[in-house]
Every structure is written in C-alpha cells, then in structure tokens.
C-alpha cells in the first residue's frame, strides 16, 4: 500500500493521481516550500527558467509571476500533473509565457535559448539516473546559470537529520555533475526543507572550489 502511494507521488496517474495532485496543491507546506525555493533564486523578469517535476504547478505560477517578460518551461512525465498545471497556469500559457511538456527528465527537450535557471522540488529522488541527468541539465544552462534542488523528506518518521542527509546527497550529486559554488539553505518546517543552490561554471572556472559552504559532517 505504502509503495503504491509513493509511486503515485513519483508519477501521479488515474483517479488516485488526481487526488495526489490535489493534496500537493493544497498542503500548506508544499506552497510554502515552493514559494521559498523560488525566492532563493534571483529570477529576473527576462529569465528563461525550467522546472523539472512541477507536480501541480505551484512553483511554475510563482516563476511566471517573476519572469514576466521571459519564459518558464516545465517538464513532468505525469499526464495528470500536466493537466492540473495547465489549468492552474492557463493565463500565462495563453500569453505564451509558460510552456509545459509531458516528458521525462531523461528525455530532455531542446530549448531555443540557454536557460538562466533550473529548479526541481521533491523530484530528483524519482529520476532514473540523477547524476547523469544533472549533467545533461547543466548542458542546457548558460555559463553562470543557476540550479536549485530542494527536498522535504516525506517518508514516515522523517526528521531534521533526514533532511540534512538529503541535503548532503544533493550537494554531492551537483558537484559530481560539474556544478560549482554549491550552498545549502534550510526552511524550518516539520520536517525541514533543504535547498541546494549551485552554479554552472563559466569556461575556465572548472577548477574553482566546488563548495562555498560545505555541508556539515555526517
Ligand atoms: C512529489 S512530486 C513534487 C511536485 C512539485 N515539485 C511539488 O513540490 O509540489 C514529484 C513530481 O516529479 C515528477 N517526476 C518524477 N520523476 C520524473 C521524471 N523522471 N521526469 C519528469 N518528472 C518526474 C512527478 O510526476 C511528480 O509530479
């Protein structure tokens, strides 16, 4: 039963999937963490932004509000989530400021311009090969572009320690994928949310230190 529910959060589908989408859209902590993650990124009005695994589309709405002369792309492999997020962001889609695609992160589309920012919230844990996909996502970012990966562990009994471990894993994966200047931020919910922000190095900066603020020891 638990496995079935977890699978629904990894790829909501059918009637239970619509319910899972409704829960994610209405849980106060989900809204709070989406707004917080977006607030950590210095999104500019003309930015090109991608969210991977947008679920019910709360962060997409906030990104579109900030990048109001740019473009926000979203990919999610769930039909149910694409439908919900299209409804939630109908006006921005009509005015061609938001494009949503049903695809998996291991089948990335091409984009017209290099991206300024990439975001993923509680999604990476479901990707088939996260380090490889982070490398491919890095290839879509402009030099100096940013990525933010957030995690709020939802497993039973999750604590601040669970969040800290998740933060260290995200940090390590980003570093292995070639991102630099990784730093961790934490939002004190129950359990806390960790967001790891990192940069796609400009050419010739690959040798820069990989971490401005290293994660705490295990
Ligand atoms: C737990 S939900 C989180 C949704 C949203 N980011 C939030 O914080 O409310 C995970 C989302 O990631 C999507 N997802 C999981 N694996 C994916 C993949 N390989 N490619 C694209 N989307 C994926 C799921 O369909 C789901 O919508």
TrEMBL record:
UniProt domain Methyltransferase: residue ranges = 49-145
List the GO biological process terms: methylation
Q: Which UniProt keywords apply?
A: Methyltransferase, Transferase
InterPro entries under this entry? Methyltransf_25, SAM-dependent_MTases_sf
Question: Does Methyltransferase count among this protein's keywords?
Answer: yes
Q: What molecular function terms (GO) are annotated for this protein?
A: methyltransferase activity
Pfam families documented for this protein:
Methyltransf_25
Name of the molecule in the record: Class I SAM-dependent methyltransferase
Organism of derivation: Streptomyces rectiviolaceus
